[in-house]
Amino acid sequence: MKLVATNSIKPGTKLSKAITNQKGQVLINAGVPLTERMIMRLVDYRISFVYIDEEKTKDIEAKGTISDKTHSKAIQTIENTFNELKSDQGLTNSFVIEKATKQFSEVIRSVMSELKGNKELLTLLSNVMVHDHYIFTHSFNVTLYSLAIGIKLNLTEKQLEALGLGALLHDVGKMLIPLDILMKPGKLTMEEFEMVKQHTTDGFNLLRNLPNVPLTAAHCALQHHERLDGSGYPRRLKGDDIHLFGKILAVADVFDAVTTNRVYRQAMLPHEGLEILYAGTGTHFDTKMVEAFRNAVAIYPVGLTVTFNDGRTGVVVTQNQGYCDRPIVRILEENGHEVEPYEFDLKDNLGVMVTKCSLEAESA
HD-GYP domain: which residues (predicted)? Predict the structure, then answer.
């Protein structure tokens, strides 16, 4: 399989991984030749990248870090809870969240177990999914990234459970913001941006007095937009005044935001998202958190086409544990000329560097 940009696919191309919705229902099966209309639908669904069949890479497989069952259950729990907060059922917001806490805790324990049991580096590109609402998927993605960082930092089980719960609910305050502002494709007005910024305080106020929600989890909602240099919000906290969880969430939240397709911006690839984090290290983001994140996430995902500084081009086959930016690559070309495919391990060739990543699909 090969990872390509959806808008580069030609009619007749076959998917190597099915497209599902957030309930796990298959929308387009693997192996089905895509029509122009189907490709347009994928673009309309704001799916940036898909895996396609290709003869030279047909044995390469991108495995999800988290099982489909856990993934679907998490998204469904978030969706049900957040929608209940939006609806008028005569229930208090606190009651709705408190009722869902047990389910959230079960999801977090499942995620922690799977993250610890899977030795592969974390990548979310292998789960090609159509979602109904960005916030549901974003909340789960941020939870995965936050827990991956927490595990690398050797946090205790109790700390990880509190971190996971806080990450799942970090954007709960956005349920109090009108949908037309949340999903606005253009630039927000100053008044609209102030309303969006209020989600941090609103989320904290929803969570802080709930008996089954640790105060540290509530601080995830409050502090995930704070920055080390005091340029963040809502309190413009600096350095060590920001809680550990706030520092972790800042990294996880920004990375998922820039690597996910939004109504106003195309998604970046993981290595591009990491560059954003590095650019803000020491000013916006804590160096220790960024390094922990870097060691947990696959920077060059399986199926991605990469070109090296020595003129070779190939497709990422698998990851090297502990070397997130040094995967094993199947070389297909040398200086623009096709060669008999062979495996090349970047871990054993430290002088060779990735200079370009390509997402172009070949003609079907």
Answer: 113-309
| Of 198, 209, 211, residue with least CA distance to 172 | 198
Residue range 239-259, pLDDT digits in tens = 999 999 999 999 999 999 998
pTM of the model: 0.88
Q: Residues 308, 334: contact at Cβ < 8 Å? A: no
Most confident among 68-77, 271-280, 321-330 (mean pLDDT): 271-280
Residues 45 and 23 sit within 8 Å (Cβ to Cβ): no
Amino acid at 349: N
State the Cα–Cα distance between residues 203 and 44, nearest whole angstrom: 31
Angle (nearest 5°) at CA 132 between 126 and 135:
80
Contact in structure between 34 and 84 (CB atoms under 8 Å): no
Q: Cα(148)–Cα(97) distance, rounded to whole angstroms?
A: 24
The Cα 195–Cα 181 span in angstroms is: 9
Cβ-based burial of 350 (10 A; exposed 0-12, middle 13-18, buried ≥19): exposed
Strands of the chain, DSSP E = 2-5, 19-21, 26-28, 49-52, 129-130, 305-308, 312-320, 323-334, 337-345, 354-358
Give 109-149 pLDDT, tens digit per residue: 999 999 888 777 787 765 666 665 678 889 999 999 999 99
Q: Which of 10-14, 20-24, 227-231 shows the lowest per-residue confidence on average (mean pLDDT)?
A: 20-24
Helix count (H) and strand count (E) of the chain?
A: 12, 10
The number of residues in the chain equals 364
